[in-house]
Specification:
277 residues; alpha/beta; Rossmann fold; seven-stranded mixed β-sheet; 8 helices; 35% helix; 12% strand; disordered N terminus
Length: 277
């Protein structure tokens, strides 16, 4: 019986063994594709940080980490890079350092920017020659989220959309489906409305954008005693230009095991998309 020759590995034997268990799921050819791929994670909070780490643990060779923000003490419950001594440091920089300790050969690039129309070409490449293989959308801001999704869709760049993880406490309610078919998620519904109204998305049929969402209704926040009845008070270090706490209508509670599960599900979509598994 003849066998097709194995792909050529530029990586060392040690690197191959580092990802031995995933290799037994996706095969040698799948690992070659992962090693040679570039994934952009936009928004590296509770969802995006877990997605990025899972991609690194899966052997993805280049990971762009896009986030303008710095670490706050309130991030500890859900963000991989948030720990003692990191408050006030750029989220992307600290996470890149952590990822490199997992996968020393990875090119983990911290990109300290707020995603918007002006930087789309810099991050994604020109319209006719994308420089990324997959994008993870873990953005909270509706306007920028929709612009990223629409731009990726127009340019044929595969993208997975993370919808509302805040206010949920049950990770078993998480599902993955086409963004046009998600249910019971107000954030996803708003994204669909904006994409149809401002970006020309069709009213019927699938869009080819996988989305990770939850069937669990979001819970209203419970005010902690230390708020003293005065509402949420921001404690983020330093001035913030975009998406500040003061600009939000409500600050929902979050559970790290839910935001983490969202991120892991996003990583699964990307790895399966890259390897065909």
């Amino acid at each position: 019986m003849s066998h097709d020759p194995l792909p050529s590995f530029d990586e060392s034997y040690k690197l191959h063994r580092r990802f031995d268990r995933l290799g037994r799921l996706v095969g040698d050819a799948g690992m070659v594709r992962l090693f040679g791929s570039r994934v952009l994670v936009v928004g590296i909070g509770g969802v995006g940080s877990h997605a990025a780490v899972a991609l690194a643990r899966s052997g993805v060779g280049r990971i762009g980490l896009v986030d303008f923000d710095v670490i706050c003490a309130t991030n500890v419950n859900r963000q991989v890079q948030s720990r003692e001594g990191t408050a006030g440091k750029p989220k992307a920089t600290v996470l890149a350092e952590y990822i490199h300790s997992i996968h020393p050969q990875v090119q983990a690039e911290p990109i300290l920017r707020f995603y918007d129309a002006e930087c789309a070409d810099d991050l994604l490449g020109p319209p006719d020659a994308p420089t990324v293989d997959w994008v993870v959308d873990a953005i909270d801001n509706i306007t920028t989220k929709c612009h990223l999704l629409a731009t990726c869709h127009q340019r044929g760049i595969p993208v997975v959309c993370a919808t509302g993880a805040s206010g949920r406490i049950d990770p078993t309610a998480i599902r993955t489906d086409d963004l046009a078919r998600t249910r019971l998620d107000p954030l996803a519904a708003m994204v669909r409305k904006v994409l149809r109204k401002h970006h020309g998305f069709p009213k019927a049929g699938p869009w080819g954008i996988p989305a990770v969402y939850s069937l669990e209704p979001a819970r209203e926040p419970i005010a902690p005693h230390y708020d003293g009845g005065r509402g949420f008070r921001c404690m983020c270090p330093g001035p913030r230009e975009h998406h500040t706490c003061e600009q939000r209508r409500v600050i929902y509670g979050t559970a790290g095991f839910v935001t983490g599960a969202f991120g892991l599900a996003c990583a699964s979509v990307v790895v399966r998309g890259l390897t065909g598994a």
